[in-house]
Amino acid sequence: MPNPSEQRIKVAFEETEAGPQIALVTFDRPPVNAIDGPTKDQIISVAGELADRHDLGAVVLHGPRHFAAGDDIKEMATFDRGFAVQGHERISEAVSAIAAIPVPVVAAVTGFALGGGCELALAADFRITAIDATWGLPEIHLGLIPGGGGTQRLPRLVGTARAKKLIYLGDTITGAEAVEWGLADDGVPADEVLAAATALATELASRAPLAMRAAKQAIDIGVERDLAAGLVLEATLFGSIFSTQDAGAGLSSFVVDGPRKARFHGR
After folding, report:
1. Closest by Cα among 99, 100, 75 to 86
2. What is the distance between the alpha carbons of residues 203 and 88, in angstroms, rounded to a whole number?
3. What residue spans define the domains of the chain?
């Protein structure tokens, strides 16, 4: 483990009334949270640890001033091709590790979400952005293409035409435009972003935890399959969830007390 002075990722946990905890993951590499090699390693490590927790209901990702300004260009400029390929593999692995966290992940975006930072936000389930935030995949100006999933996740989110415009031109858009494009789910003033993201995470953590994890798995895996295979996956997950105590409690509570009054315990 790195010593505290080298810790680029900080994690804090908040209790919720519903029971499951919220993990607040803070990118902390001033001034703009550029993603160097150790940062990628720490993202992978932290995401893996969060994925193994059974008391977790949701995750919030944020940076105090900037979300993340992308890969550390000064570091990249020193790489030969072998190190560059390895660096690409690590950012791709880091982004995929965030996407693989089995509970909902909310990105709270302020300042820059560029390059690898944008790709980290794309790996989240929801994105709350400051209306004056700066989003983009500017790798074309370096003679490169996005290497952390941007060419794949962005068109799935906003459509091929808009993804090509952002990637081909290497332009940036504001947080307000990101909401208009469907890249972000909501836009608020910068000083309200973290509170809005945490409120959403708290609401998500109040839902049935086993069903939430199954729903995320069904969507994230199913969307990569054809419809028939996706329906098989959904049926399998539905069957496994139906036999849980949570499902029994939810159905019983609906009959006895009416809708949305059940309390779930992840069993």
Report:
1. 75
2. 35
3. 4-205, 209-257
Q: Which of 14, 17, 139, 180 is catalytic?
A: 139
Q: Strand pairing of 172-174 and 134-136? A: antiparallel
pLDDT of residue 84: 52
Q: What is the pLDDT of residue 69?
A: 92
CATH class of the domain defined by 4-205: alpha beta
The tens digit of pLDDT for each residue in 195-221 reads: 999 999 999 999 999 999 999 999 999
Q: What one-character DSSP code corresponds to residue 192?
A: G
As assigned by CATH, the class of the 209-257 domain is mainly alpha
Does the annotation count 15 as an active-site position?
A: no
Catalytic residue among 119, 192, 224, 234: 119
Specify the residue for token string 């959904």: 234
Q: Report whether pLDDT(1) > 50.
A: no
Q: Measured between alpha carbons, how far is 41 from 59 in angstroms, rounded to an integer?
A: 19
Size of the chain in residues = 267
Higher pLDDT, 177 or 256: 177
The identity of residue 11, as a single letter, is V
* Active site annotation includes 17: no
